[in-house]
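Hi all, posting the design record for the shared folder.

TITLE: backbone redesign
STEP: 1 of 1
STRUCTURE INPUT:
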């Protein structure tokens, strides 16, 4: 009785989080877009399994108790059935080019090497005003990268690395924190 609402709430929250991140990554053409889309589908299925498990507990003592539709609301009325948010999928190969995209804090991103501007950075930046950028793969493959700063008071959490095709053992998205001293 206590575990189901916690697990179900967490599952639905994770599904919507993955869905919205999937939409952002699709706009940025990230290779990891499809991984997030698959997560949305898996979490939607997990929600159904949790409801079925609850309904069968104690020989169905509370069968139907958690059957209210709760995914897919578009108005105040209950949907007739749970409706999975439609995740976006991108083709595996996305053409030529460097294969690397960059996103900076604040929403700007570049997939063609164009210049980006971050929020202001100066030597007196408070620690809670941390800055970051993300480097991500645009297509399957392995892509080395190097990042540097042109000031003495800014340091990077990671200066170089490799982006690899998305998957369980591979990292196709790296967040680099910009620390001010």
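Okay, here is what came back for every position:
SEQUENCE:
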């Amino acid at each position: 009785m206590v575990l189901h609402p916690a697990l179900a709430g967490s599952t639905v929250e994770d599904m919507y989080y993955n869905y919205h991140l999937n939409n952002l990554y699709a706009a940025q053409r990230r290779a990891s877009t499809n991984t997030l889309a698959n997560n949305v589908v898996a979490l939607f299925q997990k929600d159904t399994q949790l409801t079925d498990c609850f309904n069968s507990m104690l020989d169905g003592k509370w069968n139907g108790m958690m059957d209210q539709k709760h995914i897919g609301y578009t108005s105040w009325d209950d949907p007739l059935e749970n409706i999975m948010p439609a995740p976006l999928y991108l083709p595996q190969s996305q053409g030529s080019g460097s294969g690397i995209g960059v996103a900076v804090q604040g929403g700007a991103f570049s997939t063609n090497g164009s210049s980006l501007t971050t929020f202001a950075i100066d030597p007196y930046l408070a620690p809670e005003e941390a800055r970051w950028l993300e480097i991500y793969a645009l297509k399957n493959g392995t892509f080395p990268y190097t990042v540097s700063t042109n000031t003495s008071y800014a340091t990077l959490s990671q200066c170089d690395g490799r982006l690899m095709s998305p998957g369980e053992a591979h990292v196709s998205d790296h967040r680099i924190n910009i620390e001010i001293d």
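COMMENT: The chain has a mean pLDDT of 86.
Let me know if anyone wants the other runs.
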